[in-house]
Amino acid sequence: MNQKLDRRKKYTRMALKYSLITLLKIKPISTITVKEICERADINRSTFYTHYHDQFDLLEQIEEKMIADINTYLSQYNFTRDEKSLQMTEKLLEYIAANYDICQTLLNENGDHSFERRVMDVARTFLVRNWTEKNNMDADLSEYAGTFLISGSIYVIKQWLANNMDKPPKQIAQLINSIELNG
């Protein structure tokens, strides 16, 4: 019986998540209502409120899961070897490709721009820490270099998503790493 409840909760949360993602494709979070989310998910509003406070809470939990996954991916790699950097970038792009719908939606103009900043902050933290060690660079300068590289990489990824991932993750990873290594 308990397992059945867990499955229902998972299904409900999944339905609400995809309902919100679908709505974010056509309008900003500030104009989306709980009623719209529930109608699209075919779930009662009272059920929604047993899981989330409001549409912003649902979006935040979706973003938190994505950030946690990105952290997990980045934690597995060490930038001290160029191959590892390429491998990390490729794996991250494969994760983004596997979660295309959510990533493309969260990074589009209707998504919450705090998600993009949070992704940049997470990536910058890993990049700066490893770049400082690798290049014997001053921490402050490494911070600026990291901001530059991450901002450019995010926009390359956004363009890649906007073009329906017209190139394989490996090719985009090679492009990003080539720019990182060679300028």
TrEMBL record:
Q: Which residues bind DNA?
A: 33-52
Q: Which GO terms describe its molecular function?
A: DNA binding
Q: Which InterPro entries match?
A: Homeodomain-like_sf (IPR009057), HTH-type_Tx_Regulator (IPR050624), HTH_TetR (IPR001647), TetR_C_Firmicutes (IPR039532)
The UniProt entry, under SUPFAM superfamilies, shows:
Homeodomain-like
This protein's UniProt keywords: DNA-binding, Repressor
HTH tetR-type domain spans which residues? 10-70
Protein name (database record): TetR/AcrR family transcriptional regulator
